[in-house]
Design brief:
The protein is built from no helices and eleven strands. With 128 residues, it is mainly beta. Strands 4-5-6-7 form a four-stranded antiparallel beta sheet, with no helix packed on it. It is globular.
Length: 128
């Protein structure tokens, strides 16, 4: 098997390899993919589900575990821990790789570092 590449279109994620689609979809009913990041040294991807398009039954005041790591078959390897003291949105609204290779996730009031291997919240700095 060759190298897996990830794409997103119309809110769906897709894992492709050697010109074939391995998997396409989203993880939660009604949720859409807003950010998709390849994981260096792995075939997995980091996925941020759109915080404005929560799955059926997840109300705005409910915790929404919307940052996850997917395998090329669409299985969830982990869902990132939320900031326990976050009271506003109770989800993440941004994610990116930092220059040092760490995973940065933005919550409403916090700038966070997430362990890319486990989804564990390593650090949360209050910003507002």
């Amino acid at each position: 098997m060759g190298e897996v590449s990830w794409t997103t279109d119309a809110g769906l994620a897709a894992a492709n390899c050697d010109g074939k689609t391995l998997w396409t979809g989203t993880v939660d009913r009604g949720a859409t993919v807003s950010v998709l990041l390849a994981v260096n040294g792995s075939d997995d991807a980091i996925v941020l589900l759109n915080p404005e398009r929560r799955p059926e039954g997840v109300e705005p005041w409910h915790p929404f575990f919307n940052l996850l790591r997917l395998t090329p078959s669409g299985d969830v390897r982990w869902r990132a821990e939320l900031v326990p003291s976050e009271t506003a949105a109770k989800c993440f609204y941004g994610v990116e790789w930092r220059d040092d290779g760490s995973l940065r996730a933005l919550a409403w009031s916090y700038d966070c570092t997430i362990d890319a291997a486990t989804g564990r919240l390593l650090h949360a700095e209050f910003t507002k």
